[in-house]
């Protein structure tokens, strides 16, 4: 008789967690390669995302095909997308309009024909836009350079028209999110695929080089064709992406007390998602006020002052998880960063702490893990079960 994961008692699950921590399979070849994973993990460049191999091993080891997996702090959807690839049902949620757009595109990708029809729809919608003074004024915003500095004037007009279509929600075709995620990817970069002058694909450093016209529709279409060139596996199960505050999830989903596992990686202390992604967030409608005011309400800023957000996180998780459902939290720590201690202590008020793994990443940090916030020396996996 085969014993399924949900039939394991806490002692048996703890043994499995201990074995996982001792082996750390995601650190072995081929999973330790930065290039490992489905190409859609890189649909849109994004700073600070979880390595797909960690998501793969957590989902494949601690859940089963058909399980409902949720990430309330999904970022660009690495964990839910990996769950979908492995035949699990998935829900991704994030408060950032940029991250939510990308995660929605990844967990429920369209067919190539659907995506190309949607990009044709974008071209039609853009042709009807008449740019206003406020549209042009929006291009004067910037952090290390203005938006206007990044583009040839004709390209800028197209970017502004596409932005208006995005903000007014005029593209409703199947595949719209995939079109937007693809456009967001090509918004800036250091190669000819990008719409911008020479910058950087992840962080929009101040641009340099000549102003060359690059068409929004052509570059977006090329990105879509490349992204969808590799078929998804037969076991892929389309998921659901949500843009919103995780505290609203109990009223946004019909799966109360039915989620089998919540697997998530909250922002590491010191990590900022707004400024490294400022140009893409601008396209999604953010203004100077959003960067100065709205960003203060995001978890990565709140957790530097208080753990109150995490009290809410555990409350929401308890409502969503089924009895004995699994909650896995991936979090970093350092000599001056003990977020993990607060998460461990808060979690035990509503959950049973079944196990914990600790990975020494000090050597990795010295070799370029600069996008994970302040100095991180260890990665922790906290495994809880709902009471």
TrEMBL record:
SUPFAM superfamilies: S-adenosyl-L-methionine-dependent methyltransferases. Residues 44-95 form the Ribosomal RNA large subunit methyltransferase K/L-like methyltransferase domain. GO terms for molecular function: methyltransferase activity. GO terms for biological process: methylation. It comes from Promicromonospora thailandica. Pfam families: UPF0020 (PF01170). It comes from the Bacteria. InterPro entries: RlmKL-like_Mtase, SAM-dependent_MTases_sf. Keywords: Methyltransferase, Transferase. Gene3D superfamilies: Vaccinia Virus protein VP39. This is RNA methylase family UPF0020.
């Amino acid at each position: 008789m085969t014993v399924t994961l949900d039939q394991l008692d806490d002692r048996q699950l703890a043994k499995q967690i201990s074995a996982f921590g001792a082996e750390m399979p995601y650190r072995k070849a081929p999973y330790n390669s930065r290039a490992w994973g489905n190409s859609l993990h890189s649909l849109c460049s994004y700073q600070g995302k979880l390595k797909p191999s960690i998501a793969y091993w957590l989902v494949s080891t601690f859940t089963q095909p058909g399980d409902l997996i949720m990430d309330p702090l999904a970022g660009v959807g690495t964990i839910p997308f990996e769950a979908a690839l492995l035949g699990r049902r998935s829900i991704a949620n994030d408060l950032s309009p940029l991250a939510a757009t990308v995660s929605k595109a990844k967990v429920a990708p369209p067919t190539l024909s659907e995506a190309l029809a949607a990009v044709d729809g974008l071209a039609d919608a853009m042709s009807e836009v008449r740019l206003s003074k406020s549209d042009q004024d929006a291009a004067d915003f910037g952090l290390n350079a203005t938006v206007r500095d990044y583009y040839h004037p004709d390209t800028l007009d197209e970017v502004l028209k596409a932005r208006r279509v995005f903000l007014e929600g005029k593209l409703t075709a199947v595949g719209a999110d995939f079109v937007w995620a693809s456009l967001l990817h090509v918004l800036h970069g250091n190669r000819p695929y990008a719409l911008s002058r020479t910058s950087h694909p992840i962080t929009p450093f101040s641009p340099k080089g000549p102003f060359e016209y690059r068409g929004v529709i052509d570059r977006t279409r090329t990105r879509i064709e490349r992204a969808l060139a590799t078929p998804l596996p037969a076991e892929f199960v389309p998921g659901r992406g949500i843009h919103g505050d995780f505290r609203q999830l109990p009223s946004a989903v019909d799966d109360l007390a039915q989620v089998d596992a919540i697997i998530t990686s909250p922002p590491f202390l010191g990590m900022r998602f707004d400024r490294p992604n400022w140009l893409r967030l601008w396209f999604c409608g953010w203004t100077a006020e959003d960067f100065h005011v709205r960003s203060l309400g995001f978890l990565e800023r709140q957790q530097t002052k208080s753990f109150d957000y995490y009290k809410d996180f555990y409350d929401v998780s308890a409502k969503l998880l089924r009895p004995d459902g699994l909650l896995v939290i991936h979090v970093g720590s350092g000599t001056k960063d003990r977020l993990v201690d607060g998460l461990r202590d808060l979690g035990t008020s509503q959950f049973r702490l079944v196990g914990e793994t600790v990975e020494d990443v000090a050597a990795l940090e010295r070799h370029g893990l600069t996008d994970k916030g302040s100095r991180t020396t260890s990665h922790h996996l906290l495994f809880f079960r709902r009471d």
